[in-house]
Amino acid sequence: HSALGLWERVPEPAAAAGIDRVQLTLRAAASASAAGEPQRASSLAQDAVRTVGATEDPAQAARAYERFGLYLFYAGRVEEALAARARAVELVPAQPPTRLRARVTAAIAQALVNARQPAEARRWCDEALAAARGAGSADEEADALITLGMIEQYDDPASACTRFAAARALAAAAGSPEIELRALYCLAEVSSQLGDLATACAAFDEGAHLAQRTGLGWSGMGIFLRRGQLKARYRTGDWDECERLIAAVPDLTTLAVADVVAQGLGVLVARARPAASVWLRRLAGLGGADPALDRNVAVWEAELAGWQGDLEGARSAIRRGLAAADAVEIFDQALEGAWVAMNGLSVEADRAEQARAAGDTAALADATAVGRALLERVRADAKQAHGTHLAHDVHVRGRHAKAEAEWTRLQGRSDPARWQAAVDAFSYGNVYAVARCRWRLAQALLAAGDREQATAAARSAHATATRLGAAPLRTALEDLARRGRLDLGVDLPAQRALAGLTPRELDVLRLLVEGRSNRQIAEQLFISGKTASVHVTNLLAKLGVHSRLEAAALARRLGLEQPAGLES
Length: 568
Hints:
disordered N terminus
């Protein structure tokens, strides 16, 4: 089993009778990690740590603590991981340089990066490199180079990518897939932050395939890579591949599988797949096990509820998502709270629009207060990202720009300039985000009286939604086009149906929206009851509906709520 190979690269002291209990426990932990069970892996490694305390073998204890720290990190327990790795360093002498010293110092350097202590991380990273080179260990040197790249990525991300590529080659030559996977993951992540989605997709794919070949497909790094594949393809619009990747995962038996599926749920929601609701219900049953999982599930649940018009359900999901985001310890992932808040602003803007239409001042005030708090959350996270040298992260910029645009919509003055800024911010390759922002841009432009630019924005967004199979967005754009009489450049079925109605039938349809009977329609239009009945029968046939209620519902969706005779 390849998981055993993770330990074969560091010689293990063994009694003449064979492998002792500590080594067996650590191998079991490695197998659990490779199978996508980080919590079980960390529990087994903790058992090894407890057992080795009685052996008075510092080297073996150091190995146990180093692995314990790794599995704690994969389980999302950053502070505990740092403590375990610090203990590993204490157990290994600095001189002479050894592979074990290189490993434990590289490990604590990585933990310090994740704990946002870059200066201290660099000090240990330098020692790890010196120890690895002194011991002639290429794989440990590659491991240390990756961590050095992690430190440098915040000030010089392009240089860090060069370092990751070099470390990947070194690890591959040394036959160390675990370290090679880490290099590929870091390369993919930083490339994604820079907006280079092509490089990111290629690195995620290479890493995921390597992990699968080496039996590490469900290890901690294997999971990171699988999730990265889905996230990158969601952004680039390769949604058919996203669905294929989701369909290829095994049944929902571990948190690892849940983490991967949750990353791809956005495609199922955006395409209105029935499976989206099924997966959301199943994943909701795992609530509390993993805050990052809870956060992702909450966002997709909010988006689905929003498309379905259930704004209270969407609000509830956003609240859960924010609470989950606050519980995530890994720094870069903690910034995903801005993603939740940005989506929350969309919900509150929808609530504000409804409240204005209904004249509900209390609901409007509530939506405004909640929206303001969400905007401050996005702004604070954007400021924190800049303060920690993540100014190059295009995703942070996109979320901030969209949040600012949603805030203007919430206030009832949707600003075309803000929406254009959001379109520009996502134009690094996030095609669905661009299309959604262009939808709102078209609305804002139409309200401002710029029909030409509104039409261009709506056409572009509609073409993307159609290509992606994003049915709810496509429907929203078609509804906007009907209400605003925008030409999307396509022959829409409902537009054809409307075009087939006579002016009198349109008058009748508007009165159906008001719930009028045939007699009332006849009185309003100064026609006979029999003529009114004939008009109703004809328009039902032309619209392809079977009842007055269906006709009225379709009319509302088409924006024909105006009273008869008032539409120009």
